Amino acid sequence: MAKLTAHTGFGIQIMLKKLRLIFSVYFVLLFCLFVLLTQAEASFEQVVSVTWQRAPMREVLMQFAKANRVGLFIDRRIDPAILINFKAEKKTVKTVFQDFANSAGFYCHFFGSVVYIGNGDMREILPRVIAEHRKFFEQVNTAKNKNSANARVKLRKMATVKLPMLSEPRKILNNLAQQNQFTWQNLEKLQHDVWDENSTLPSMQLGDFLILMLIGFDLDYVCELPEKDSSGKMILRIIDVRNFENQTDKSIK
Q: For the chain, which end, N or C, has fewer CB atoms within 10 Å of the first or last residue's CB respectively?
């Protein structure tokens, strides 16, 4: 009986050490996220003045974003070469992006230090998509099993993504899957396309970047239990973003 008790006590100690390690890593990730968000907020709160007259949209927006140390992601469905006219005096960087998007009939959303600019119809669609994913991410502490908890942590990790010129979105997503040990389902839903410039986005949550990459194809993803894949990896299933409610019955609970 004494040997059994000693063995049990030793096992409990190991388990407690593992739990402490897991929580330590989790809180370090949260701290890093807090620092990045604080820095992003500081950049967006800078007061600036701009005047753009018959300027190519992507060129001036990219220059403006770079000068103010924020990232910019323009939806693939927007013609980046359109000429724009816009003026703002003594407004914050964040307000400049918002006012420009509103004046041009676009919609902008802020993912940490990355600005997304999309078509006007994204005003209703994207916030709903983000809300569903946020609900999923925030359940990491109440996940019913280890695999679902790990899946949530993986999607919340910070990632800096490079987008080389002429790279294909499908290839970029496949590379991310290999790097982060998950698999795609229905990735063939993505139309063939190529990235038309070299760019690197500031560090952002992996799950948010996947939203950005897919939303331009009217697509989204749901996370399924790793046990359903023979490889044991997390599965991300591509779905139609405009029919979200009818396609999420198999997501992790």
A: N
Q: Are residues 109 and 150 located together in one domain of the fold? A: no
Q: What are the Cα distances from residue 241, in Å, to 84, 106, 204, 206, 247?
A: 29, 18, 21, 18, 9
Domain-terminating residue out of 92, 120, 148: 120
Quickly state the pLDDT bin for 228 (edges 50, 70, 90).
Answer: very low
Contacts of 69 (CB under 8 A, 6+ apart): 43, 113
Q: Examine the domain organization and report whether 93 and 141 are in the same domain.
A: no
Pick the last residue of a domain from 95, 120, 145: 120
227 against 190, higher pLDDT: 190
Domain hosting 88: range is 1-120
Question: Is position 152 within any domain?
Answer: yes
Looking up residue 105, the CATH number of its domain turns out to be 3.55.50.30
Residue 110: count other Cβ atoms within 10 Å of its Cβ.
15
Residues 21/22/23/25 CA torsion (nearest 10 deg): 80
Burial label for 148, CB within 10 Å (0-12, 13-18, 19+), is buried
Q: List pLDDT tens digits, range 20-50.
A: 655 554 454 554 544 444 445 558 999 999 9
